[in-house]
Specification:
Elements lengths: L1 E8 L4 E6 L4 E6 L3 E7 L9 H8 L9 E3 L5 E8 L16 H9 L19 H8 L14 E3 L3 E3 L6 E3 L8 E7 L3 E7 L12 E7 L1
Antiparallel strand pairs: 1-12, 2-11, 3-10, 3-12, 4-7, 4-11, 5-6, 6-10, 8-9
The structure holds zinc ion.
Length: 210
């Protein structure tokens, strides 16, 4: 295994790097990681939640499934998923953010994160962290893709369509491996994860070749 980069990413910060086709990204964490990718040679071709759900014909993706772009191309393949059997990765939510947390507080909805009504709210979240992660490529804030939310297990009521935060997270850090199907700019956010049992935690991002 040839390690290209192996980075520690502190809680509630962003990380980004370029990847060559065939290289593998390993995301290791025990809390939510918002993840997105962009075609390195066409920054207008970005990861797309809806295309990904349609091409895989499901709302949960795992080993063998692919991440798709708005231009209908496979961008990455999940080749290993240690969360399988314990929980799912979310493709419904966008990213958390400073404004999102402020609004939840305003609306009296902080108890939906399972830690009560008066938890401190961060002034930024995954949206701002992904902007940082993609800063080398200067992706405008409004064009940051809605992410694959790794380790964000949500409960969906199929009758009402209501999506509820769940505290289901890996007990210890585990990983998901994603293989690049094209040259990419990738970015990840160590989510402040207000619904996790111990809130947001640092993550590890490793790019390697077999
Ligand atoms: Zn987040």
């Amino acid at each position: 295994m040839k390690i290209i980069v192996d980075d520690f990413v502190p809680a509630n910060t962003g990380w980004g790097h370029s990847m060559e086709e065939g290289q593998i990204l390993r995301i290791r964490a025990k809390t939510i990681v918002d993840f997105a990718c962009i075609n390195l040679h066409n920054l207008n071709e970005r990861f797309d939640q809806a295309r990904t759900k349609v091409y895989n014909m499901k709302i949960w993706i795992s080993t063998g499934d692919q991440l798709f772009s708005k231009l209908n191309n496979p961008m990455m393949t999940i080749i290993e998923d240690q969360f399988s059997g314990q929980g799912y990765h979310d493709l419904q939510y966008g990213s958390c953010s400073g404004p999102r947390y402020a609004r939840a507080k305003e609306e009296g909805r902080l108890n939906q994160y399972h830690h009560g009504d008066d938890i401190p709210i961060p002034d930024h979240g995954c949206w701002e962290n992904l902007i940082d992660g993609f800063s080398e490529w200067q992706i405008p804030p409004e064009l940051i893709p809605s992410p694959l939310n790794i380790f964000q297990h949500v409960n969906i009521d199929v009758k009402s369509g209501q999506i509820n935060h769940s505290p289901n997270r890996p007990i210890d850090p585990i990983y998901v491996d994603l293989q690049a199907e094209m040259d990419l700019a990738v970015a990840a956010s160590a989510c402040p994860d207000l619904a996790a049992p111990e809130f947001g935690q640092p993550i590890q991002a490793t790019i390697f070749e077999r």
